[in-house]
Amino acid sequence: MIVRLLRFVRFSHTIFAMPFALGAMFVAADGWPPARVFALIVLAMIFARTGAMAFNRLADWNIDQRNPRTAARHKLLARGAAVGLLVCCSGAFIATTWWINWLCFLLSPVALAITFFYSLTKRFTSWSHFFLGLALAVAPVGAWLAVTGRFGLPPLVLAFAVLLWVAGFDLIYATQDYEFDRREKLHSLVVRLGIGKSLAWAQILHGAMWLALLAFGVSAGLGIWFYAGCGVMVPALVYEHRVARRLDLPAINAAFFHSNAFVGAVFVGAILCDRLGAR
């Protein structure tokens, strides 16, 4: 049952947003935060993402059943169980923020609303990829607030980088559903622009994301380890886009997961090296 639940919410994809939350946390704490804060941030991330995925599955229940790529998804969990998962994870997320600080608790419904809203956007706007980016961009801001209790420029710059990064790789991912989305009259930039132009825009977005990461490093006062990490990310991004141009769906899936997981791991590793090495 647990394995089916984890597959239902694609738990492995938690690695996309988590490194950027952890990176913001390490910068805000100038190293390792207290164990309690670390644990609460990780729990909040897991609960928020799982709740958002449950909402996504419920919102797209009928659509996904008509899509050959996603039709098997709903055999993993009954609709009633998905509703229970949504309610439990949303409540657990809000409760977790209560134990973090009052600002995180007050903003927790806003964070949930942002992450849930993405699931509705393909019904009315081609910019759904950017709403997904916004949903994941909440993570570094939330982690920063959890440590400091106040807003700052670095997490906002990092959130912008995450938005661009996610929108770029979601454009690549959306090429798999081009025919289905067009037939179902669902909105995406891939349907609006075509696959070729969408892949070109994905490259532009990832280039802008890389520049935004450099701006984050400047705003956060990071050093050589972080910028070296940014350099290491480039081949992974280039590889992802080269694979995407082949329009080989299994290869796209593999490149999507491994390249983006690598970028996230390098990001958080470079920040850890920078913060711990500065001591």
What is the secondary structure topology, with strand pairs?
Layout: H1 2-8, H2 14-29, H3 35-59, H4 61-66, H5 79-100, H6 102-117, H7 128-148, H8 153-174, H9 178-184, H10 189-193, H11 195-220, H12 224-245, H13 249-277
Description:
The protein is an all-alpha fold. The protein has one domain: UbiA prenyltransferase (Tetracycline Repressor, domain 2). Helix content is 80%, strand content 0%. The protein contains 13 helices and no strands.
Q: Which runs of at least 5 residues are low in confidence (pLDDT < 50)?
A: none
The biggest beta sheet is recorded as: none
Our estimate of the beta-strand percent is: under 5%
Derived from helix and strand composition plus strand pairing, the structural class reads mainly alpha
Helices and strands, in order, run as HHHHHHHHHHHHH
Helical fraction: over 70%
CATH architecture: Orthogonal Bundle
Euclidean distance between termini CA atoms: 45 Å
Q: What is the CATH first-level class name?
A: Mainly Alpha
Report the strand count: 0
Mean pLDDT: 88
Instruction: List the total number of helices.
Output: 13
Q: What count of structural domains? A: 1
What is the CATH superfamily label? Answer: UbiA prenyltransferase
Estimated radius of gyration: 18 Å
Give me the CATH fold name: Tetracycline Repressor, domain 2
> What is the overall shape?
globular
